Target: Nephrocystin 3-like N-terminal domain-containing protein
Amino acid sequence: MVVVASPERIPRRALERIEAPISQLREIQESSAILKEIRQVLDETQRQTQGNYEDKAEKDLLHDLASDYEGYKLFNRLRVQGTCEWFFNDEKFRKWRDSNTSGLLWLSAGPGCGKSILSRALIDERRLSLNVTTSTVCHFFFKDGYEDRMYSVNALCAVLHQLFTHDPSGALIKLALPAQKNYGKSLIRNLSELWNILLDCAKSPHAGEIVCIFDALDECEQQAGCN
Model:
């Protein structure tokens, strides 16, 4: 049903009640437009990045580092509307996110409390950094009992793969080529070398801000044979 009336015949309070939702709607539409533009920029950047890996050594390295880390994340349900807001608005979280220096934020809770759902929400909704277009958010979801999700080398390989494939300059992956030449396919089992590559990437001017989120870290096991 549509009701039409002259503005001068509508009580002032009624007009205010009408104008408030309209203003809120405009704000939502503007925010949605901004998010859409950001996503378009990120998608275009990733498409451009794909053309930077023509070198066979780089392709081989990406192949060795690859895993279904995105699938591990998507295995967790989307958050129900209204949940997780307490964390998004938490002062400690905001202070950590807004800081200009590197820092660690540790979140712990009992099994089934929704930590993994929160982790997915933080990643999917791009809440881990204020520098959305210049930061790289890397993630890994550990899972006890799954050979490719139990060890620190699995997580480091996933983080490096995400860093390399989201770097439009193509410069970061070149930092790993000397180690790949020395260790070949065994590189993905060499904890110290993978860690050193990550440190080199973090120091690079091409990296920008790097945010890593590790879910279920308590399910990470020591791996025999890792250097």
Summary: DSSP finds nine helices and two strands in the chain. The first helix runs from residue 12 to 50. Strands lie at 135-141, 209-215.
